[in-house]
Design goal:
The complex is a heterodimer of chains A (193) and B (306). Chain A is built from 3 helices and 9 strands. With 193 residues, chain A is α+β, with helices and mostly antiparallel strands. Chain A has a domain of 121 residues. In chain A, the strands form 3 sheets. A 4-stranded antiparallel sheet of chain A has the order 1-2-8-7, with no helix packed on it. A two-stranded antiparallel sheet of chain A has the order 3-4. The radius of gyration of chain A is 23 Å and the shape is elongated. Chain B is built from 12 helices and 6 strands. Chain B has a 5-stranded parallel sheet. In chain B, helix 1 runs antiparallel to helix 7. Classes of the chains: A alpha+beta (193), B alpha/beta (306). At the A-B interface, helix 3, strand 7 and strand 9 of A face helix 1, helix 7 and strand 1 of B.
Chain lengths: 193, 306
């Protein structure tokens, strides 16, 4: 009988967008922030790599609802760096994911593991006989209180909205940046007016 | 509260950093992070815009709360404002007396530092942070003016300076009518071409008319009851057709036929023509048929001069 249901932990993440419905991103090349419109499907796809990365770091396989969703690509509106949208997440958001995964998935699993191990070995196991080695296993885990859930936001309504007439989408760029030359979504050469 | 967009953004950035340090950083530095957070709150205008009014209107008894904790009673007011202020006061009290966190732990039967600090964070700090985060977000939105959008226009949609004039073809007797179109187009920002204002004295008529077509994105033919035959049109229609062949979608031949006019001349029937009742209808059809669009709505300069 499969125990698949027990192996799947479903977490519902909540994170803030700004008043105008924009999601903050950071260019991995130049480090500047910009914002894109929130599209749930695109967002799930762009967060998949972040989840996988976090999963690798914590030694677990974390996956979202839409495993096969195609990765959206974006251009940085400042340096024109082209990357998968999942590579253009802010450090704040990645930290939020990590904390969330740690609290909701990793620590409960660790607690359960230690609890099972302690049951199996009775806390301390010893073995010794002539010609063999003695060993001692001590299971000690004090994390009885889970850390607080991380909080997302508030996201300031900063930056300037740009309507991209090439693809009909909108983005936000830094105030005072007048040198936008290509659309972050489709890469069309544009002029800011 | 009068804060600039940058101040609000910076305020929220610092708030998030201090909040996350306090909620998630190592237990060993817990009191330090409480102090840093409270110092930030006391000096930040945006946070004070939330906390100060509560202080003026409400009274909370932090000592009483600690006494109840010592009696193993974890109690918070049901009123959200009072609860927020009380939790803020509890954090301030932890700075003044670092032993209080330990005291909280003893009351909750958590004697190891990592456990009682974590429990304090979960039961006292996080609900406060959650509510303050929500209120700060609202305050920041209220304090920030609505943004006006800029437009990023694809380069291929931006015409060159000398290719979007509108050539107005007409009979001399219809001059008053064509001038009404001329001024209406000028008001909208277009550069209509009309023989009188656009032909310098002594200029070669044929050359100037041809140049007028070359610089235009549309040729408009006004057919009124004064129209008798199409001979006078022949040269201009020929020029227009040449432009259409050369420019394709970027050039429109538009014919507006007024009431009681003869049928649309044969030369123009392959192109756009509309029967119109009056100038307004004619102008509407003209704008619809142009290959260029009118600009975004803006305040006139003198309206915002002061």
């Amino acid at each position: 009988m499969s125990n698949e249901a027990e192996d799947v932990v479903r977490c519902q993440l909540t994170f803030n967008v700004d008043r105008d419905g924009f999601f903050r991103r950071t260019c991995p090349s130049c480090g500047r922030d910009f914002k894109t419109q929130v599209n749930e499907a695109d967002l799930v796809a762009s967060l998949q790599p972040a989840f996988r990365q976090i999963g690798l770091e914590i030694g677990a396989e974390l996956s979202g609802e839409r495993e096969e969703e195609a990765q959206e690509h974006l251009y940085c509106p400042y340096c024109e760096h082209y990357a998968e949208s999942g590579d253009m997440l802010t450090q704040t958001l990645v930290s939020y994911f990590e904390r969330y995964a740690m609290r909701e998935y990793v620590l409960p699993v660790v607690n359960k593991m230690f609890s099972n191990a302690a049951d199996a070995f009775g806390g301390i196991g010893r073995g010794s006989s002539k010609g063999s080695i003695s060993f001692e296993i001590i299971f000690e885990h004090h994390r009885s209180v889970l850390p607080p859930r991380p909080i997302s936001g508030p996201e300031p309504p900063d930056m300037t909205i740009v309507e991209l007439l090439c693809c009909g989408k909108r983005a936000k760029i830094l105030d005072g940046w007048h040198d936008l030359r290509l659309c972050p979504y489709c890469g069309t050469r544009v002029l800011l007016q | 509260m009068n804060l600039s967009k940058d101040q609000i953004t910076n305020s929220l950035r610092l708030f998030k950093a201090r909040r996350d340090d306090l909620l998630h950083e190592d237990e060993a530095a817990f009191e330090h992070h409480v102090q840093r957070f409270i110092e930030f709150c006391q000096n930040d205008v945006l946070v004070q815009s939330i906390v100060s009014p509560l202080r003026q209107d409400l009274t909370v008894n932090v000592d009483e709360w600690w006494e109840k904790v010592n009696s193993k009673e974890l109690w918070f007011p049901s009123d959200p404002d009072t609860e927020l202020l009380l939790r803020y006061g509890i954090l301030v009290s932890v700075i003044n007396n670092p032993c209080l966190a330990l005291q909280f732990g003893k009351a909750m039967r958590k004697y190891k530092r990592d456990e009682y600090v974590e429990l304090f964070r979960v039961l006292v700090v996080r609900p406060f942070m959650d509510e303050l985060t929500h209120r700060l977000g609202n305050a920041a939105n209220l304090a920030s003016p609505e943004e006006r959008a800029l437009q990023a226009v694809p380069l291929n949609r931006i015409p060159k300076v000398n290719e979007t004039r509108v050539f107005l073809s007409h009979k001399s007797v219809d001059k008053p009518l064509v001038y009404r179109y001329y001024y209406a187009l000028k008001e909208l920002g277009f550069e209509p071409w009309l023989d009188e204002p656009d032909m310098p004295a002594g200029a070669n008529l044929e050359q100037e008319v041809f140049r007028g077509f070359a610089e235009s994105c549309a040729a408009v033919f006004l057919i009124t009851e004064n129209f008798k035959d199409e001979k006078y049109l022949a040269a201009e229609v020929e020029y227009a057709v040449m432009q259409k062949r050369g420019k394709g979608e970027k050039f429109a031949i538009i014919t507006l036929r007024y009431p009681n006019a003869s049928p649309v001349p044969r030369l123009l029937t392959p192109y756009i023509y509309k029967d119109v009742e009056n100038d307004l209808e004619g102008f509407y059809e003209l704008l619809r048929a142009l290959p260029v669009e009118t600009g975004p709505i803006r305040w006139k300069a003198h309206v915002v001069a002061n």
